[in-house]
Amino acid sequence: MTDLLSLVALSRLSPHCWRRAAESLRSGDAPAAVLRRLADVTSPDDPGRLARLRAEAGDTIARAERDAIAAVAWSDPAYPVALATIVDPPPVLWTRGQIDALSAPAVAIVGSRAASQYALSVAHDLAHDLAACGLVVVSGLARGVDSAAHRGALAASGVTVAVLGSGVDVMYPPEHAPLAKQIDERGAVISELVPGTKPDAMFFPLRNRIISGLSRAVVVIEAGEKSGSLITARCALEQGRDVLAVPGNVLSGRNRGAHGLLRDGAKIVESADDILEELGMCRQSVGRPTPAPSDPILACLTPGEPSDLDAIAEATGLGTAKLLPRLFALELQGAVARIGGGRFVRIDRSC
Predict the structure, then answer these.
(1) Which residue has the higher pLDDT, 325 or 97?
(2) Is the pLDDT of residue 47 over 60?
(3) Does the pLDDT value for residue 154 go beyond 90?
(4) Domains of the chain by range and CATH?
């Protein structure tokens, strides 16, 4: 509870502090020490700031518990490993719905809010087919492509995750409240912002790094030259994720941003098979891939000794995009276990 209180208090600091917080947490500093240090740095002339942050954090946790909102802290084993690898992961994810939805391999689908019927149909069908293969579909619950992707995943009885630019108890746009309730039943609605936070223009570009950070790949559908979807694509590239794009009408100008991504080397998407191929998957192997008996990841892990993702990547020579699904597969087989802070430990089966 002490760590959670400190991490919630850290999340109430300005977002520009979160990268520094993540660096300190990864180095092994206790959350309470990181909070104390950042509170002193950001408010050197306000000796009561730390106490107020802790009191506000306690009130926030109590409110979330009353409203059945789960707080998944950075140190919690349930915190998504893929997100823990980015440079500025949220100290806490506030979650409605099924927390397990955050741990499965995921693909983000993003695009225009004022989407054409073509874009809506493509988003729905791609999400449907990916979800039917066992992948989680991540998007932002916005109008247009985002909501079509969520609905496509749900239509396949699949799992989808919505990342908000407000608190999870403050729905935006408001007409998507029924859709969010449907997502709760099979997936999750999440936010880095504390419950009660109203939507603000500055929050939506920030949440895009979470959409890409949760995902192995980002698919852009119908994005203009100044589309927010291009921010998500840029975050994906910075995070080492794959970026793919759907071609569109060259006459309307609605898809110039996505076409720019294609010119820069993004893979063209015409069907879900194109996405699966880029991820090294096939329709039969998405759900629970089986690792080879002499898996190099197991070979570099010592039973009982936690290793973080960077150390495993260095030892195996695998990049994050290829390493994460292999670790997920080993976890499903009970060969490794996740612990706090995005670390893994090998399970000794000899006893």
Answers:
(1) 97
(2) yes
(3) yes
(4) 2-68 (no CATH), 99-278 (3.40.50.450), 296-346 (1.10.10.10)
Q: Are strands 242-246 and 336-339 parallel, antiparallel or unpaired?
A: unpaired
Q: Which two tokens stand for residue 114?
A: 């004022």
First to last CA, the chain: 32
- Convert the pLDDT of each residue in 23-46 to its tens digit: 888 888 899 999 999 988 888 878
Name residue, tokens 């695009």.
Answer: 111
Taking alpha carbons only, the member of 275, 246, 267 closest to residue 122 is 246
Angle between helices 18-26 and 2-11 (to 10 degrees): 150
Please say whether the beta carbons of 52 and 8 come within 8 A. Answer: no
Are the beta carbons of 110 and 145 closer than 8 angstroms? yes
Whole-Å CA distances, 329 to 133, 288, 293, 333: 15, 6, 12, 6
Give the dihedral sign, CA 172/174/178/179.
negative
